[in-house]
Design a protein that fits this description.
This protein is of the alpha+beta class and about 350 residues long. The strands form three sheets. A four-stranded antiparallel beta sheet has the order 3-2-5-6.
């Protein structure tokens, strides 16, 4: 399980959610909540005790409460949160702390540092975005030391116009790595070079080379339209195949319906299902006829003349051509009539 990453540095910038609440400055209530928290702490109920200490800070925002909060967070294994509150205690309490208490807090901070890792990112050029475990770290981006829990952390460094760098850090307690990273410029796309023009005969100039990245085409030769033809054939085949499958399913249900040995409810269900299969089969059949007719039209009226024109070259007389396509429907069936010169 990947360790939780948090950007905690010598000067912290993020307070917990409880600290964001407006303080009511009720000192009496704060003392009562702290006493309740101390009782819970003595019984080993650290989570409940921490909730009481946070509530006490909301009631009366004395920085001295940070000490009890940090000590409880250490018991809960929340090293980064404890480190934050010890740092806040030193920064905010000022002259209110005794010399002995200050030294004790400094020792606790040193112990927390030794149990965790401190990483410094030195990225060139400056201004890159640094994500640690998918969370942006403004402190890392500013080149400040970042305290991280031991474990594996994913780091992604990005900057517009430069290649993205991805790294995996496997940190151990007490590690103090300095990550020096130099971003390489992104390679711009370069168009391919044009071919050289052929030398002209006497009195004529050689042709110019084609433009980079472009495929030269011959004037007067239309595209073959093969993609449309292939799509039409595939579509017609799929629709026809679906028609056959659903038709067979409909026939199977009809066999159940006319079987007098089957229960009446099963026969009725088979009849309804058979009708549904037959309806879908009819729709697919109509689609196959339309698609097949269009594909045939495209073959004779578009693809074949174009292919012949490409073979003959520009200016040659036209060959086969389709003049008309007419669908027909009768009581016995349906189809498509084609007329023209082939």
């Amino acid at each position: 399980m990947r360790a939780l990453a948090a950007a905690i540095v010598i000067t912290f910038a993020l307070a917990p959610a409880a600290m964001a609440q407006p303080a009511s400055q009720d000192k009496k209530l704060a003392k009562k909540l702290i006493a309740q928290g101390d009782a819970l702490y003595a019984r080993g109920e650290y989570k409940a005790a921490l909730d009481k200490y946070r509530a006490a800070y909301e009631a009366y925002d004395s920085p001295k409460i940070f000490y009890t909060m940090a000590a409880t967070e250490e018991k809960l294994g929340q090293d980064l949160e404890a480190l934050y509150h010890y740092q806040q205690l030193l920064a905010d309490a000022g002259a209110e702390l005794s010399e002995d208490l200050r030294k004790e807090v400094e020792l606790k901070i040193g112990a927390l540092h030794s149990r965790n890792a401190i990483v410094v990112f030195m990225v060139e050029p400056q201004g890159a975005q640094i994500l640690i475990d998918s969370t942006e770290s403004e402190l890392a981006e500013a080149g400040e030391p970042v305290v991280l829990l031991p474990g594996v952390h994913d780091v992604v460094i990005t900057k517009q116009g430069f290649k993205t760098v991805e790294k995996t850090l496997d940190l151990k307690p007490g590690d103090r790595p300095v990550e020096r990273i130099e971003l390489a410029p992104a390679q711009p796309r370069v168009a391919g070079k044009g071919g050289k023009g052929g030398k002209g005969g006497k009195g004529g100039k050689g042709g110019k080379g084609g433009k980079g990245g472009e495929r030269p085409t011959e004037p007067g030769r239309p595209s073959s339209g093969r993609g449309v033809l292939v799509a039409g054939v595939v579509g017609t085949s799929l629709l026809a195949g679906g028609t056959v499958v659903l038709g067979l399913m409909a026939l199977s249900k009809h066999g159940v319906y006319v079987d007098g040995t089957k229960p009446m409810q099963e026969r009725l269900d088979a009849r309804d299902q058979g009708k549904s299969f037959a309806l879908v089969a009819d729709i697919l059949l109509a689609g196959a006829v339309v698609t097949g007719g269009f594909t045939t039209y495209w073959y004779f009226a578009v693809w074949k003349p174009r292919a012949a024109a490409r073979e003959r070259g520009p200016g040659a007389p036209a060959g086969a051509a389709l003049q008309a396509v007419s669908p027909w429907v009768s009581d016995d069936g349906a189809g498509v009539l084609f007329s023209g010169r082939f």
